[in-house]
Specification:
Blueprint (H helix, E strand, L loop, with lengths): L22 H6 L6 E3 L2 E3 L5 E4 L2 H4 L8 H13 L11 H13 L4 E7 L2 H18 L7 E5 L8 H6 L3 H4 L9 E4 L5 H4 L14 H10 L4 E6 L15 H12 L2 E5 L13 H5 L5 E4 L11 E6 H10 L17 H16 L2 H17 L7 E7 L2 E6 L8 H12 L2 E2 L1 E3 L2 E4 L7 H17 L2
Parallel strand pairs: 3-13, 5-6, 5-7, 7-8, 8-9
Antiparallel strand pairs: 1-2, 2-3, 4-10, 9-10, 11-12, 12-15, 14-15
Helix pairs in contact: 3-13, 4-13, 5-12, 9-10, 14-16, 15-16
The chain binds pyridoxal-5'-phosphate (PLP).
């Protein structure tokens, strides 16, 4: 399918300061998308691009799905906006109920945000407010993990563990520490699914608890499966140990499920996949198929009850919120998206497709430049050997080659990341993998 009237032109590129983009490099050779449908994008000149990344890990039901489009259109024509502070609208409560029903048992209180970054910072504030409400205000330290990504707001930047994202912003927030990343290619390269080695990396949390003392630690925040830093799959037994340590010492466990939420691993949340229930769960992206910006923090009922019941009757209990929390258009998109996930059984579909995806991805073993392949559910990472003196360059070139060949693949440094919409068909998986193979064979 070709775009008949490509109306989007890059008339001028200079004004848009692009996020997480090498602006000068991009503007010298832009890659633009103008239209989307199902598994595909189209460029302004009508070239079809197969979406291997569900946009940015977010369009799980595929693009421009009719029920979602119509729900947003209808809501925009019915009520464009309603304030969320001290007044409500029915869709907000419906949306929260749907999310609560999908969440792990015991986590049934839903706070809406507009992004994954806002969800991370909201969860951190909830953890601090919870300890204060239960009479332990000294618990203020937040522990993250090296190579973790929790967005770009202050809490997420500091709790995050990607050095480049932190180095220009030292000490935005006091009282953070980090356990080491689980990445261990010497023992785990080319693992299929969860690696066998590395549960002991979780012991470092015990070391930090001893070092800081549990009475000073509010929360641990981790992605159950780290996506943005290059698809790092938790070793077998690792998350169980992290959860046990948190439980033992009264530390709030926050799972950042901005990528893993809503079917990416074939289950509603990674919490279900790993059978581990956190105290707070952050999500965004696929919550409404990314049709309208939206995120959420799902809280354990006890956290909500503790914070709410500690405040005098009639007073605002948690002084936090956003103008666009539970935006009507986002809620309408959420309800339509979640209905679509159920109607089309998309989480089960992801689970069923995962072995095909795994086999196809691992067929790249032995291809030029490939030093590791990692996968879980419908997430894959292909790590390339960095070019001497030019780290990240090979990953970027592979991304460009794939795009030119009609496949969208994400790169973070020299790691190619895949996270296709859950509607992907077997032949499309094959096409993505063959395009990557061709790209790697064509670059130095
Ligand atoms: C695990 C995780 N947390 C937080 C975020 C930030 O989300 P957003 O870009 O919506 O702020 C992301 C984004 O990719 C993410 O992967």
């Amino acid at each position: 399918m070709k775009l008949e009237n490509p109306s989007v032109q890059a008339a001028t590129l200079e004004h848009f300061w692009m996020p997480f983009t090498a602006n000068r490099q991009f503007k010298a050779a832009p890659r633009l998308l103008a239209k989307a449908d199902g598994m595909y994008y189209w460029t302004p000149d009508g070239r079809q691009v197969l979406d291997g990344t569900a946009g940015l890990w977010c369009v799980n039901a595929g693009h421009n799905r009719k029920p979602i489009v119509e729900a947003v259109q209808q809501q925009a024509a019915t009520m464009d906006y309603a304030p969320p502070f001290n007044i409500g609208h029915p869709l907000a409560f419906d949306a929260a109920t749907v999310v609560a029903n999908l969440a792990p048992s015991g986590l049934q209180r839903v706070f809406f945000t507009n992004s994954g970054s806002e969800s991370a910072d909201t969860a951190i504030k909830m953890a601090l407010a919870y300890h204060r409400a239960r009479g332990e205000p000294s618990r203020r330290i937040i522990i993250g993990r090296e190579r973790g990504y929790h967005g770009v707001n202050i809490g997420g930047t500091m709790a995050g563990g990607i050095p480049g994202n932190r180095k220009a912003f030292p000490a935005l927030m006091a009282g953070v520490d980090h356990i080491r990343s689980t990445h261990d290619p010497a023992r785990n390269a080319f693992s299929k699914g969860q690696p066998a080695h590395g549960a002991e990396f979780a012991d470092e949390l015990e070391r930090l608890v001893t070092f800081h003392d549990a009475s000073n630690i509010a929360a641990v925040i981790v992605e159950p499966m780290a996506g943005s830093a290059g698809v790092l799959i938790p070793p077998k037994g690792y998350l169980e140990k992290i959860a046990a340590t948190c439980r033992k010492h009264g530390i709030v466990l926050i799972f950042d499920e901005v990528i893993t939420g809503f079917g990416r691993l074939g289950t509603p949340f990674a919490a279900h996949y790993f059978d581990i229930t956190p105290d707070l769960l952050t999500c965004a992206k696929a919550i409404n198929n990314a049709a309208v910006p939206m995120g959420a923090v799902i809280a354990k009922n006890e956290i909500y009850d503790t914070i709410v019941n500690a405040a005098p009757e009639g007073q605002i209990e948690f002084l936090h919120g956003y103008t666009y929390s539970a935006h009507p258009l986002a809620c309408a998109a959420l309800l339509a998206t979640q209905r679509l996930y159920v109607d089309e059984q998309l989480f089960a579909r992801a689970q069923a497709m995962a072995p095909t995806f795994e086999a196809a991805l691992h067929s790249l073993r032995g291809t030029r430049h490939v030093i590791d392949i990692r996968n879980l559910g419908l997430v894959g990472g292909v790590e390339l050997e960095p070019r001497a003196g030019a780290a990240g360059r090979r990953g970027f070139e592979a991304h460009v080659k794939c795009f030119e060949a009609g496949v969208l693949v994400r790169f973070t440094g020299d790691i190619l990341a895949l996270s296709p919409p859950l509607i992907i068909a077997e032949e499309q998986i094959g096409r993505i993998v063959e395009t990557i193979r061709g790209a790697l064979n064509s670059i130095e």
